[in-house]
## 1
Amino acid sequence: MGRRTPLIAATAAATLLLIGGCHHEEPDRPRNSTAAPLARVPTASPGFPPTAAGAKGRLAGLKVEWGKNWQTYRREEFGRYWSDETDAVGGRNGCDTRDDVLRRDLTELREGDRNPCVVVSGVLDDPYTGTRLPYSYRRASQIQTDHVVALGAAWRGGAYAWTPRRRLEYANDLDVLLAVDKQTNQDKGSRTADKWKPPRRAFWCEYGRRYTGIKAKYGLSVTPPEKAALEELLATCPSRP
């Protein structure tokens, strides 16, 4: 038995390497490895999301107009894959954007020993429904990454005029992204705030703050019904003396 130990150890190591190369992610997604991974989990840009009062002020300053160029939208305009090669929050840290979202949003987090970018397991308290969703690296997941202001909605609000680089930055900005329940995200699609709100009413305030903060950060316009819906969402925020 003692003579077999090195062979068994080598086989086990090879197996672990093979498993580490398999990740249940969106299909056709390349891994990024241009920089050493950071141990620190990226969070958000300073002051994001804005307070309720700050969001109301920013909402008042947004351009109000009907969406444009909806017929020219294509998902590929924002890049075909997640990218670490942007100056957005979480960019250039050696970790895939979706991995950064999981590292930030999951609790009971267990990261990979060899690559701390990889989330081995964790639990998501879904902000949209309040459901607790387990996550495991080796199993199909009920968790998806949502652009709070959907890419199609951003396109109609002004992203159609951006450079490809700016659109890639938007698509990978952690301020724009949340880990959420897969089915709820699919139900939302590219709907704006006047056409879709989180089923969990307790999240309406934060959703309104995040949504408005994203619109203001990127200079996106809102439609008249969208602005009214955001005012409704922000009205649910607790009043403070």
Note: The two ends are 74 Å apart (CA to CA).
## 2
Amino acid sequence: MNRISTADIAALALVFLASCAVSQGQDETSTGTALTQLEAANALNPNALNPNALNPNALNPNALNPNALDPGSLSPAALRALRDPGEAGDLSRELLNYVVSCAFTPAQSFRFSWTDQAGSVHEELYPGLIGLAPSWSDKPLGQTDQQWVSACLASRTNWYGISVTISSRGSHQAIDKASAPELSTYTRQEGAFWGNLFDSSPYLHACHDDASHARSLSRACAAGHLDENGDVEECGMIHVVGPCDSHCLPLNQRGMYYPSCVNNLTGSPDATTRVITVFLP
């Protein structure tokens, strides 16, 4: 597992409050494509993927896994993390917001409340969007769904805290877009994401295609952020494995996504089909 270093935390703290902003000049409806096809607000803070590296009271994805994704079914520890009025609580709520958006359909949502340090009550309502694991609303998350939700979270993480509209594609029926209009408008391959945040040893991987174009649009997690010396810095625990054509089967021409990528980089050649391929305009 790749843990977030102290240097990572210091560098990424500046993007935290901007993590849910919409990029300048681009709103959720500007493309004329339904949000079930294109995800807006892809600016998840990398620290939220591994919040225990920042604060032991923040939400661990493993705490969400054993039960249904419902306020009445969550463990006391998970609820405490979500209701924490401090910085750890902010990260926990951000992570849950993206988890719900990845897992649930637009017909589903997650509602809860928390009280800040001034005593004000905040009513939260997180809507579903993509629908990769809708059954999580009433039963534990299975391994296949764990991998889909994890890939979704990784694909929507942004080093800079800037929201960039992306086209996410994969073999899951919710994002298999063989006939979607975005295939002709989102034509630049950024890369792909896969892994399992809910595993006993959580991991996330990414590979890249057109790194320079992605970085020009403030998307850096597939190839890594370039620091002032030109060295690559990974987005928290998202490990960049290299070019996609060295780690994935060739692009599926029907739906334009990588059908499988290498899952175990150091042991047997285990691979996963739960891969989300990202395209940019």
Note: Residues 6-280 form one domain.
